[in-house]
Design a protein that fits this description.
787 residues, Clathrin/coatomer_adapt-like_N, 10 strands, 55% helix
């Protein structure tokens, strides 16, 4: 081991025989030292052997940059064996950012003019691998010459090299138009495949070239029909499919040429129908051709009957045993939801069956598609299936499933009772996996359903008595019992099961929630307030409620301690005001994101509504003592939205401080983050009143072109002084202007109140099919978003 004269085979054997990583590293370092010495000595006999060993060391992941000049020495050799190793080394050890590109350009140019086709092929392969923009401009003339008047194999390599040139320098596409017109008449499948690839690249990057080659659509259709009509050919057929690679390439080119052109869609419809009906699906080869045919049918907006056929083909893919095929079918069907909703509903049962697949990628795609297929007509059926999936799915799948169910129920609920029942089931099954705003939305919904209050409070009481581990459900149940606890005894509800609930049972249940080790601090605070409100709802033992509340007067949690002390003072000093202070909360209406939240009381038409000017002087983070019960601050002035009456200003302040109405949060203006490539990304901001360190950012992605955008991905990073958490997006496909925007919520925590900065990585695929990735840095957040 370590013999300076070892060959490549011996080096490979020695590396494989190394028992530890340290032994391998020692062997490689010793061999690199020997190669350096040989390169300095300039031994011509060992040059090729040393370079091959150096390339192997590079493939192992060790540095081998000191061999770059040896590659150039081999490139300048007249021997083909050395030139071949030199080009291989250049492809591995060099790139377009190296300073040696000028030497490489001259070498490639000389070899492109060489009389040997083998040497020309090496030069073309190297240029297509690592040619920079400058190299492509310098060598485009030689490539054009080889693509126009050389034998078949070399011509094909020149056309493939032209593809790289067009990708690097799109403005050079016009040079190859006459060559492509000539090559379309060829019958050599390899050369025709390379030509179609070059035409596709040029059409995607140059609108003028696209208009030129739309005239050649009949030639493309004829090529496709010839492939479909030709019999078995041992040279080109694979699994009974005639040259599937060429068929796929023709279909992709037709997809580019026919987008947005009805006359082209009519011209290619017959050929597409022939491919869709005659291609066998027993092997993956046929499935690949069918998939491309389906994508072309949907992209060129073919006849309705042909689009239904495409959807049915994808539906057959869902029945395949191959999970890769099912995943591809689900992803493709999700793209068709905005345009083919009716046709997709026929396959809804098959899509829901894919939720039971054990593969994570399959049931994630099936979940996204199932949520997209929800309509007012099938919301009950699909919701039941998704609730079953929510109960058995992995933990990582619960947040997107719960969020999707809540959004679907809010959008398509047939009535309030069904909406509330569905949200309660989601909270029961998903637990802490529900979105942060689920509790507040359900409480708002319950407050507006007055006729269902007896039914709701009985159902929530039964659910809470059965299980107190699901914190979102416990928060809703304790709030509801605190507000409507009197209906557990005196309310009448024909829809709910009859139950006899004693006051002792209600208080015992609330005490159980407060003392449970599973209860979160927020839940305990809600339960303490609910218990206080029960002192006016129930007519039983008030002393027991006072005793429970007084226990938390010495709690380590400052929020609980302050509430308990204030409630205890309310019992001792202001017991005559307790009934009016703890009245039921009025119905509130919360506006959507991007608008200022306003609290509207439903008591009567004369009740004033707060304005931004009336609440601008209030600080949402300042802790105000209740009627100066602690003797530290004077009583707060009455707020404009308190109930009018003969009471004193102290009573009005008391009503305000116990949370019957909400302090208006300062408005944070929205922010346009990015606009381009047919996509617009906006940020809407919201700060929860109870947590001044948390900023909720709702990212809304919408299309600015008629079609939809797929593959949406948003990633975010913030400085170490901040914390960011991204929730699952509402989908991966951004609908067109007729559909709603795709939304994703970001939770940014800024305890130090430092200026907010964020880096974003935005990736998506526009209708052109070319993936777009943008790296953005945002430093112009509104000041109210971080102060």
């Amino acid at each position: 081991m370590g013999d300076p004269g070892m060959s490549l085979a011996e080096l490979i054997q020695a590396v494989r025989g190394a028992r530890t990583q340290a032994a391998e590293r020692e062997l490689v370092q010793r061999e690199c030292a020997q190669i350096r010495g040989a390169l300095r000595a300039g031994d011509p006999r060992a040059g090729t052997s040393n370079l091959t060993k150096l390339l192997y060391i590079h493939l192992l992941g060790y540095p081998a940059h000191f061999g770059q000049m040896e590659c150039f020495r081999h490139l300048s050799s007249s021997q083909f064996s050395k030139k071949r190793i030199g080009y291989l080394g250049a492809a591995l050890l060099l790139d377009e950012k190296q300073d040696t590109h000028l030497l490489l350009t001259n070498t490639i140019k000389n070899d492109l003019l060489h009389h040997s086709p083998c040497v020309q092929g090496l030069a073309l392969a190297c240029l297509a691998c690592l040619g920079s923009s400058g190299m492509c401009r310098d060598l485009v003339g030689e490539v054009q010459r080889l693509a126009g008047d050389t034998p078949g194999p070399m011509r094909r390599k020149a056309v493939v090299c032209a593809v790289h040139i067009v990708r690097k320098v799109p403005e050079l596409a016009d040079i190859f138009i006459p060559i492509c017109d000539e090559l379309l008449e060829q019958r050599n499948h390899g050369l025709l495949h390379a030509t179609l690839l070059l035409i596709t690249e040029m059409c995607e990057r140059n609108p003028d070239v696209l208009s030129h080659f739309r005239k050649a659509v009949p030639q493309m259709v004829e090529i496709l029909r010839d492939l479909e009509g030709s019999g078995f050919s041992p040279e080109h057929s694979i699994m009974g499919i005639s040259n599937p690679f060429l068929q796929v390439r023709v279909l992709r080119l037709l997809r580019v040429l026919g987008q947005g052109k009805e006359e082209i869609a009519e011209a290619v419809s017959d050929a597409l129908a022939q491919v869709a009906t005659n291609t066998e699906t027993q092997h993956n080869v046929g499935n690949a051709v069918l998939y491309e045919a389906v994508m072309t049918i949907t992209r060129v907006r073919a006849a309705p009957g042909l689009r239904v056929l495409a959807v049915n083909i994808l539906g057959r893919f869902l029945l395949s045993k191959d999970r890769n095929i099912r995943s591809v079918a689900l992803t493709s069907l999700a793209r068709l939801v905005p345009a083919e909703q009716g046709s997709l509903q026929r396959h809804r049962a098959t899509v829901l069956a894919c939720l039971r697949d054990p593969d994570p990628s399959v049931h994630r795609c099936a979940l996204d598609l199932s949520l997209a297929l929800v309509t007012a007509a099938n919301v009950r059926t699909v919701t039941q299936e998704l609730l079953g999936f929510l109960g058995s799915c992995p933990l990582v799948m619960k947040p997107p499933c719960a969020s999707g169910l809540l959004l679907a129920a809010e959008r398509f609920a047939p009535n309030k009772r069904w909406h509330i029942d569905t949200m309660l089931q989601v909270l029961t099954v998903a637990g802490s996996s529900v979105p942060d705003d689920a509790v507040s939305r359900l409480i708002q919904l319950i407050g507006g359903a007055r006729e269902l209050h007896p039914y709701i409070v009985r159902r929530l009481y039964a659910a809470l008595a059965n299980n107190i581990s699901q914190q979102p459900l416990v928060q809703v149940a304790t709030w509801c019992i605190g507000e409507y606890g009197d209906l557990l005894q005196g309310g009448s509800c024909e829809e709910a099961e009859s139950m006899q609930v004693e006051e002792e049972q209600v208080l015992a249940l609330m005490e159980r929630v407060l003392q449970s080790h599973l209860t979160l601090p927020l839940t305990r605070a809600i339960a303490l307030t609910a218990l206080m409100k029960l002192s006016t709802r129930l007519q039983g033992d008030i002393d027991r409620i006072r005793c429970i509340i007084s226990i938390y007067g010495s709690c380590h949690d400052l929020e609980l301690q302050q509430r308990a002390v204030e409630y205890d003072a309310l019992f001792r000093k202001y017991d005559h005001l307790r009934a009016s202070v703890l009245e039921k909360m009025p119905q509130v209406e919360v506006m959507g994101p991007g608008k200022e939240e306003e609290v509207v009381e439903k008591a009567g038409p004369e009740t004033p509504v707060p304005t931004p000017a009336s609440s601008a002087h209030q600080d949402g983070t300042q802790v105000t003592n209740l009627l100066n019960l602690l003797g530290e601050s004077p009583a707060a002035p009455p707020t404009p939205h308190s109930q009018p009456g003969p009471d004193t200003p102290e009573i009005a302040s008391l009503l305000d401080l116990l949370g019957d109405v909400t302090v208006a949060v300062p408005h944070i203006p929205p922010l346009l983050v990015w606009k381009g490539a047919g996509l617009r990304l906006d940020f809407a901001f919201q700060r929860p009143p109870q947590d001044s360190d948390l900023l909720l950012i709702t990212a809304s992605a919408s299309c600015t072109h008629p079609s939809h955008t797929t593959g949406f991905l948003l990633q975010a990073a913030v400085p170490k002084s901040l914390q960011v958490e991204l929730e699952a997006p509402s989908g991966t496909t951004v609908p067109g202007p007729d559909g709603g925007p795709l939304t994703q919520r970001l939770r940014v925590r800024n305890p130090r109140k430092v200026p907010l900065r964020m880096r974003l990585r935005l990736a998506f695929t526009p209708p052109s099919g070319i993936p777009v990735q943008e790296n953005l840095e945002i430093n112009d957040f509104p000041v109210a978003a971080w102060q």
